[in-house]
TrEMBL record:
Protein name: Thioredoxin
Family note: Belongs to the thioredoxin family.
Recorded superkingdom: Bacteria
UniProt key word Amino-acid biosynthesis: no
NCBIfam families registered for this protein in UniProt: thioredoxin
All residue ranges annotated as the Thioredoxin domain in the record: 1-105
Gene name, Swiss-Prot/TrEMBL: trxA
Gene3D superfamilies (UniProt xref): Glutaredoxin
PANTHER family recorded: GEO12009P1 (PTHR45663)
Length: 110
């Protein structure tokens, strides 16, 4: 299950992992709701390899602003605990899998 995080927990979300993906979403966002099943499936597939978390932008506006989230859904990818990339918009599961496979290769090469 994807870990929901809020402001108090956010600083620790990427600790202890090589690769963390944080989903920035809102309840009113249709594409976010379409993205969730793909992310849940990937969370299961990459169990132990990639950590997944989700952050409600409406409840955590300061964090969304800090990461310059202007459109959702948006994914922020953390490598070794630091934000490295942002992926904006809806993407099918197959495209996200291909992207994450490449990120795993990169993070192990670091």
């Amino acid at each position: 299950m994807i870990e929901p995080v809020n402001g108090a927990e956010f600083d620790k979300v990427a600790e202890g992992t090589d690769l963390t993906v944080v989903d920035f979403w809102a309840d009113w966002c249709g594409p976010c709701k379409m993205q969730t099943p793909a992310l849940e499936a990937l969370d299961e597939e990459y169990d132990g390899k990639i950590k997944f978390a989700s952050l409600d932008v409406d409840a955590n506006k300061a964090i969304a602003e800090h990461f310059e989230i202007m459109s959702i859904p948006a994914l922020v990818v953390f490598k070794h605990g630091k934000p490295a990339e942002k992926v904006v918009g809806f993407h099918p599961q197959s495209a996200l899998k291909k992207y994450l496979d490449q990120k795993l290769v990169e993070v192990t090469a670091d």
